[in-house]
Design brief:
The chain has about 130 residues and is mainly alpha-helical. It has 2 domains: about 80 residues, no CATH class; about 40 residues. About 65% of the residues lie in helices and about 5% in strands.
């Protein structure tokens, strides 16, 4: 969606810290046998500062494959964490609610159809301004 709109991609801190917490501290109600607070804090700081290489190096042998791939494949989202223009956002929920309002909750649209629906909705909103 960021590429389509020409925007910058930022990985959501809430979900990122949730993944890190589950990896180093444990799931809610289920603590890990060996909680590693230092690695959790180091990864959290490196993530928040946009230090992609240090962050990935810490994660490499300390988390499961799914978590590692989630962060490794989101380089741009991590690097943009410490930018001056990054004030945090709720874009994920805003986009979800916007799409839901356009599609009445249906998830079976073709990409081109969905794109045309979004363009039509944007045109409608711009006309009202």
């Amino acid at each position: 969606m960021a590429k389509l709109l020409g925007g910058y991609y930022i990985l959501d801190k809430f979900h990122a810290f949730s993944y890190l917490w589950k990896s180093f501290v444990g799931k809610r109600g289920k603590k890990k046998e060996s909680t590693d607070w230092n690695k959790y804090i180091d990864t959290s700081i490196n993530f928040a500062n946009g230090n992609y290489n240090q962050f990935i190096n810490i994660l490499e042998n300390n988390v499961d494959k799914k978590t590692f791939n989630y962060f490794k494949n989101n380089n741009q989202g991590i690097v943009n964490q410490n930018k001056d223009w990054n004030i945090g956002c709720s874009a994920e929920s805003d986009v979800y609610h916007f799409l839901k309002s356009c599609t009445n909750g249906a998830k079976i649209y073709n990409y081109q159809t969905l794109n045309n629906m979004l363009i039509a909705k944007a045109n409608y909103l711009n006309k009202r301004i």
